[in-house]
Amino acid sequence: MADKNIFEKLFLEAEKTNLQVLMDIALNEKDPDKKELLMAIYTYAIGKKQKELLKNKEFVI
User: Fold this and answer.
1) What are the residues whose beta carbons fall under 8 Å from the beta carbon of 25, sequence distance 6 or more?
2) Angle between helices 32-55 and 19-28 (to 10 degrees)
3) Measured between alpha carbons, how far is residue 17 from residues 3, 41, 44, 57, 59 in Å?
4) pTM of structure
C-alpha cells in the first residue's frame, strides 16, 4: 500500500504551485498519460483555490 503522506505532500504542493505554470507544463507534455495526470492535478489545484475564494465573505458575484 502506498504511503498516504506521499499523496498528501503531492496535493499540498499542487495547491501552492502557480496555476499558469502547471497549465503550461500540462499543455506542453507529449506523453498522453502524463498530460492526463497533470491536467487532473491542475483541476484539483484550481478547485481548491476556487473553494477558498468562495469562502471569502468579501467575495461577491
Assistant:
1) 38
2) 160
3) 22, 10, 11, 24, 22
4) 0.75
